[in-house]
Design goal:
This protein is mainly α. Helices cover 57% and strands 0% of the residues. It has 3 helices and no strands. Helix 1 packs across helix 2.
Length: 54
C-alpha cells in the first residue's frame, strides 16, 4: 500500500479540531480522543465514520 502524503500541519489541525469538538460538546478531551482513536480503525465505510460520536 502506498503511503499517503498530507500537507504540513494537517495532522495538527485535525487533532486541534477533534479537541475543539470535545470542548464544544462539554466532553473531557482525553477521553473523547481515546474513544475516537479506538473506534476509527474499526470503521469499514463512511457510514461507520459518520456514526462516531460528535
Amino acid at each position: 500500500m502506498a503511503r499517503q502524503e498530507f500537507a504540513p500541519g494537517t495532522a495538527s489541525a485535525n487533532l486541534c479540531s477533534l479537541i475543539e469538538t470535545a470542548k464544544a460538546n462539554d466532553l473531557e478531551s482525553y477521553a473523547y480522543l481515546q474513544q475516537v482513536y479506538t473506534l476509527l480503525p474499526r470503521a469499514e465505510n463512511i457510514a461507520d465514520i459518520e456514526a462516531l460520536p460528535p
